[in-house]
Write a structure and sequence with these properties.
Blueprint: E1 3-6, E2 9-15, H1 17-34, E3 41-46, H2 50-59, E4 65-71, E5 83-87, E6 97-105, H3 109-119, E7 125-133, E8 145-151, E9 157-158, E10 174-177
Parallel strand pairs: 3-4, 3-6, 6-7, 7-8
Antiparallel strand pairs: 1-2, 2-10, 4-5, 9-10
The structure holds 1-O-pyrophosphono-5-O-phosphono-alpha-D-ribofuranose and hypoxanthine.
Hypoxanthine (HPA) binds near residues 104 and 162.
Length: about 180
């Protein structure tokens, strides 16, 4: 199944599930080494991170805590939204090592906001682990971006947590939007 249709758009395969799994395993191993003898708090940003968070945490063997946050959408580059809900986080992130887990860093605005909010609690450290990263789309630098699964072009993607109009999150693989070539004059 190489091409799929979601509503009005057509997508083609970009990353197969076995490729995502292999990369996730390597990131997990790296985190096990980097956080040896520590007990980080993994914070998944909902909804998109739910599959990556689950698969990544299966590779993490160090003691850790896990929670999730939901952020309301930002509008424009100036205002960035707000943390709407937090699920399962420790009461206090002070002096904790935080690893924020994302499905994708696109403009970086969501993460910029989330990191600023978390920094208010003065944690010991904050790092970001994102499955996908679109460097060409970045509007704000994210110096905390430590673990990246795949750098991708500035194309719209769906699957493995990522949606188009709410659909496609359940797809095992990741697809990119097919560009329609206009006919020659
Ligand atoms: O770098 P940015 O341009 O901020 O984009 C990245 C964010 O956008 C998506 O979330 P969205 O707000 O669409 O919510 P969702 O996770 O529920 O799909 C994605 O899951 C990231 O959280
Ligand atoms: O390419 C994307 N696909 C789906 N959701 C997204 N949120 C930011 N970028 C994307």
């Amino acid at each position: 199944m190489n091409n799929i249709e979601i509503e009005d758009r057509t997508f083609e395969i970009l990353l197969e599930n076995h490729t995502i799994s292999k990369r996730t395993r390597l990131i997990g191993i790296q985190i096990n080494v980097d956080y040896e003898k520590r007990c980080p708090v993994f914070i998944g940003v909902l909804n998109g991170s739910f599959l990556f968070m689950a698969d990544l945490l299966k590779e993490v063997e160090i003691p850790c805590e896990i929670g999730f946050i939901r952020v309301s959408s930002y509008e424009g580059a100036e205002s960035s939204g707000s943390i709407k809900e937090a699920f399962g986080l420790p009461d206090n992130l002070h002096n904790r090592d935080i690893i924020i887990v994302e499905d994708i860093v696109d403009s970086g605005l969501t993460l910029n906001y989330v990191i600023n909010e978390i920094q208010k609690q003065v944690p010991a450290s904050v790092k970001v682990c994102s499955l996908l990263f679109k460097p060409a789309a970045l509007k704000v630098p994210i110096k905390e971006l430590e673990y990246v699964g795949f750098e991708i072009a500035n194309e719209f993607v769906v699957g493995y947590g990522l949606d188009y109009v709410g659909l496609g999150r359940n797809l095992k693989d990741i697809y990119r939007e097919k560009t329609v070539l206009s006919p020659l004059p």
